[in-house]
Design goal:
InterPro entries: ATP-grasp, YheC/D. The protein is α+β, with helices and mostly antiparallel strands and 463 residues long. It has 4 domains: 2-97, Barwin-like endoglucanases (Beta Barrel), CATH 2.40.40; 105-198, no CATH class; 224-305, no CATH class; 309-449, D-amino Acid Aminotransferase, Chain A, domain 1 (2-Layer Sandwich), CATH 3.30.470.20. The protein has helices spanning 26-32, 68-73, 118-130, 175-178, 181-192, 205-213, 231-240, 285-295, 359-366, 369-393, 424-427, 436-449; strands at 2-11, 21-25, 39-44, 47-56, 63-67, 80-88, 93-97, 99-104, 134-139, 148-153, 156-161, 167-170, 196-198, 225-227, 243-248, 258-263, 266-272, 277-282, 301-305, 311-312, 315-324, 332-340, 355-357, 400-407, 413-419. The strands form 5 sheets. A 7-stranded mixed β-barrel has the order 1-5-2-4-3-7-6. Strands 14-19-15-16-17-18 form a 6-stranded antiparallel sheet, with helices on both faces. Strands 20, 21, 22, 23, 24 and 25 form a 6-stranded antiparallel sheet that branches. Helix 3 crosses helix 12 (436-449), helix 7 crosses helix 8 (285-295) and helix 9 packs across helix 10.
């Protein structure tokens, strides 16, 4: 039986005769059909302790009083903890929760805290606290089997030894670190202990293309894509298309992307750096291929059909649609932005100097209002379809995906990229104190933990 809010409070041993006693308010004992003096188990994360119940009529609010000794055994870092409690009568166990954590490879420093993602972590912590959810950040620098992490209290991050989480959100920001022994051992440990975790890995552009290509409903929206390999295949793409892109399969933020434009028998290659866009011309496709082969030999790249994108004020644009599963375990569009490329640059990523606006504001400048609204709706529907198919195609859980969609000059929608670690600053404006994406992610974590945040009759989240 689920109780949505109780107060767990540590008290001096004087009010409890033994360290293995707990006091429970009479209302909770009645609700759970627990008798005075009964032996039960209390669980918090991976800690399970045997205790005896002292039914207490004087406790008017739903409360459990525990000793400081039991508090330490359960790794509860606070003397007073508002939280949820699930009583399993078959196992005679009181389970406190949910315990949610977000893992990162970002070290905590007093001055910089968690770097650019600090604001997002604070939002998660505040929203979780408002809903009586125990939440912490776990920097995964090494793995020794313990869960040292940071809770956010009184506007400060404080380190504690903490209990195992009930669900984990992966915000590791490095592909290299995800391939490390530390992360592999940690993720194996979660699986062995039955702990749900989502967005377990970065996505590979080629694997995504191959997976989505098997579904006829989205195949028409995929640019023609091959691996960069032999000269004949490369030359064929240059023959078919006047523009192609060469992209690293594991790239992000628009880095290391090459754009190749064909004019008669001359090929212009554009390379976007963080400071400028560099161009080089080649008279022969074979010489170009040889140059690229030498330059790209250390990584895997794809060759992709160039799309003649719609422009605004002479600048190409695409759209980032954020999909999150949320508390109902169904994919929903949480937000979307139009990303406008900086002048004389070929990519729209904010990391490369791009600008973002509301999609409808941009589209109504290009089309009539009815058609603009239709495009917004179609992009949302396509993004939801892609998110569902990605979930279907991969092992492990995905609960958050940033899906990049473009519109060409003929009005057709194209799937440009799918990102499992979308940048928080790139997705939404920061006008809201708690962003919709933050709420949805905590809701999904709570769902995975077995302690879902339910809506009341007016549609608002219960606290």
């Amino acid at each position: 039986m689920f109780n949505r809010k109780i107060i767990v409070q540590a008290t001096e041993n004087g009010s409890l005769q033994k360290s293995d006693q707990i006091k429970i308010s009479q209302s909770l004992c009645k609700k759970w059909a627990i008798r005075d003096g009964e032996l039960v188990y209390i669980k918090f994360g991976n800690h399970l302790e045997k205790v005896y119940v002292n039914e207490t009529p004087s406790l008017k609010t739903p409360t459990i009083l525990i000793t400081f000794v039991l508090k330490e055994k359960l790794s509860i870092p606070f003397e007073i903890l508002p939280i949820h409690c699930l009583y399993n009568s078959n196992e005679n166990t009181l389970k406190l929760g949910p315990i949610l954590t977000c893992i990162t490879n970002q070290m905590y420093h007093e001055q910089t805290q968690f770097g650019t993602i600090t604001t997002f972590f604070e939002e998660m912590a505040r929203f979780a606290k408002d809903h009586h959810i125990f939440f912490y950040i776990k920097p995964l620098i090494n793995w020794d089997g313990s869960f040292f992490g940071y809770t956010f209290e009184q506007d400060k991050w404080q380190e504690h030894l903490l209990p195992y989480p009930d669900a984990v959100y992966n915000r590791i920001g490095s592909r290299g670190f995800e391939a490390s022994k530390v992360y592999q051992e940690f993720s194996a440990h979660l699986r062995e202990n039955g702990i749900n975790y989502f967005n377990h890995s970065f996505l590979n552009k080629w694997e995504i293309n191959q997976a989505l290509s098997s579904f006829p409903e989205v195949l028409p929206h995929l640019p023609d894509t091959t691996l960069f390999g032999d000269y004949d295949t490369f030359a064929e793409k240059l023959t078919i298309y006047n523009c192609i892109f060469v992209k690293p399969v594991n790239g992000s933020q628009g880095r290391q992307i090459l754009k190749i434009d064909k004019h008669d028998h001359e090929y212009s290659v554009y390379y976007s750096s963080f400071t400028q866009e560099i161009s080089t011309k080649f008279q022969s496709s074979y010489i170009l291929y040889q140059r690229l082969k030498e330059r790209l030999k250390k990584k895997t790249f794809i060759v992709q059909q160039g799309i003649d994108l719609i422009h605004i004020q002479g600048r190409p644009l695409d759209f980032r649609v954020l999909c999150v599963k949320g508390g109902e375990n169904e994919w929903k569009v949480i937000s979307s932005v139009a990303r406008i490329s900086p002048k004389e640059k070929m990519v729209s990523n904010l990391a490369q100097g791009g600008e973002q606006k509301r999609p409808l504001d941009v589209l109504t400048d290009l089309f009539d209002e009815k058609l603009a609204q239709q495009y917004v709706k179609l992009m949302s529907e396509l993004a939801i379809e892609v998110a569902y198919l990605i979930s279907k195609s991969y092992e492990g859980l995905f609960g958050e995906l940033g899906i990049d969609i473009a519109i060409d000059t003929g009005g057709k929608l194209w799937i440009i990229e799918v990102n499992s670690k979308p940048s928080k600053s790139e997705i939404e404006s920061r006008t809201e104190r708690i962003r919709p994406s933050t709420r949805a992610i905590i809701n999904y974590l709570a769902f995975l933990s077995g302690f879902p945040i339910q809506k009341n009759r007016k549609g608002k989240k219960e606290r």
